[in-house]
Amino acid sequence: MKAKKQLGIWMDHANAHLIELTGESKENKTILAQDGEQDEALNPRDETLIQNKEQNELSSFFNRISDVIVHYDEVLLFGPTSAKTELANILKSDHHFDEIKIEVKPADKMTENQQQAFVKEHFNIMG
Length: 127
Fold this sequence. Notes:
Layout: E1 6-11, E2 15-22, E3 25-32, H1 47-69, E4 74-79, H2 83-92, E5 101-106, H3 112-122
Parallel strand pairs: 1-4, 4-5
Antiparallel strand pairs: 1-2, 2-3
């Protein structure tokens, strides 16, 4: 039987720490949300324009994470903000992710070691 590809993602609205569990190795990557460098050009009173820009940046951030998730069998989304739930809802509505087991768990801010331990414990891998 082929080993399942498992991925843990600690995330908030600013970044996502990807923790891949593959046998003995643990591979970590980070995806950062784009910061709006062009904000000075926007009229600060135009709330709609600012909100649309923020929504587009968040959508791009979620799309980049989704491009990674599609290659896994099981994914754990965890972190302190609502970002994990927002992403999970987007993935549930996309049929490309129907065969991927996606779970969401609340978690506080964590060190990299705590994140790895949380993911290993979730997937019951002792190493």
